Amino acid sequence: MRVNVVLPSNDTTTNVYLEGMKGYPDPKCKPTVKDTLAEFQLSLVNIYECGVTRVVNKITGKKVFYHRIIIEGDQEFGKEVISVKCITNGPLYNVTHGIVKRDVLPAGFQEPEDLEITSNITGSAPEPSLTIAVRQGENLVSGDLNVSPGTNLQMEIFLDKNSAPIYGLGVNYMQVTDTLTQEETIIFNGCSVDPYLFENFNTVDGDLLTAKFRAFKFPESTFVQFRGTVNVCVDRCKGVYCQGQIAYGRKRREIAPSAADPNKIYEVTMTTFIKVDYDAAADKGTASEIDQKFRQLKLANQKLARNSRAGNVFESIHVSSSKSVPDSNPSSSSEAAAKVEETILFTREVISQPEQSMGRSGSSSSRRPLLPLLATFVLVLGVVTRL
């Protein structure tokens, strides 16, 4: 997916980046800026690469991919947020309805003489939009801020204000990776693998999930990526028992897998990044304890069933990276054998909000709107299947 953002001709713009990825070093997630045009190339195959969120309607098969682009300027300009959305149509289904005709009415059946229809109400539920955030106290932790191992943090996953009264949330699986070669499961079948490092998700009203955790890092990377699979259910998702409490997560060895939630409508795959590195002022004893707990997490992952790892729950970073390598010969016969499976459409939404407004309140920014900003979206086909 190629996204072109036409910036103002003046010099008020200072930075353009993907939400939550300010300072992220991967050049694939940075725009190419020429004069007043900023161009992003976002993969719809390896969605973890740059944190693209994917929403799948489990009934219709419709898929929606979205991200947010942040444009920062001077003090007068402020900051603008652009929502980029890509909609793919699911397959068409032929459904056959059968009607059984009865020759006689049931015993005691009585039809009312007068039938009065007082009202006819027709409506449609909104498509859910989810946000994932990490906080240290009241402060939002973004990709350009560094936290030390052992820092107490809280992850929040919440619905937009239009969807919150209708849907509920539940986290099925979550992984952490170093975005390179290492990955570990921290939520499996809805429950924490190691509650010391990452606690179970809890909720009060069903549309906001929170989980407390301690910052940890991989040896060869300062960036930690969280990859989660979130269920969106009508009204409220089913809770599961984990270590004596109801959570919107559980441990496989304690409870056998339960049946699928009958209220599940959407499945959302989303990611977030944090930057973790050692600080000279940090408590070395705490950092050493976290490192030991992280090694224990690796051992716990080895005890999980093989299919709990990236094989069929997640798209493994090893598989995804191999898929994302372009073909050296783009005009090869294998490309000619590919067929388009989905139709891509684009919509645009411009939002004005400061960083502090990220949350459930949905309050808008008091800064002036970005009048000269234009955004154009150009389709680059990336979702294909091989015959």
UniProtKB/TrEMBL annotation:
<dbReference type="InterPro" id="IPR052774">
    <property type="entry name" value="Celegans_DevNeuronal_Protein"/>
</dbReference>
<feature type="domain" description="ZP">
    <location>
        <begin position="1"/>
        <end position="249"/>
    </location>
</feature>
<dbReference type="GO" id="GO:0009653">
    <property type="term" value="P:anatomical structure morphogenesis"/>
</dbReference>
<dbReference type="InterPro" id="IPR001507">
    <property type="entry name" value="ZP_dom"/>
</dbReference>
<protein>
    <recommendedName>
        <fullName>ZP domain-containing protein</fullName>
    </recommendedName>
</protein>
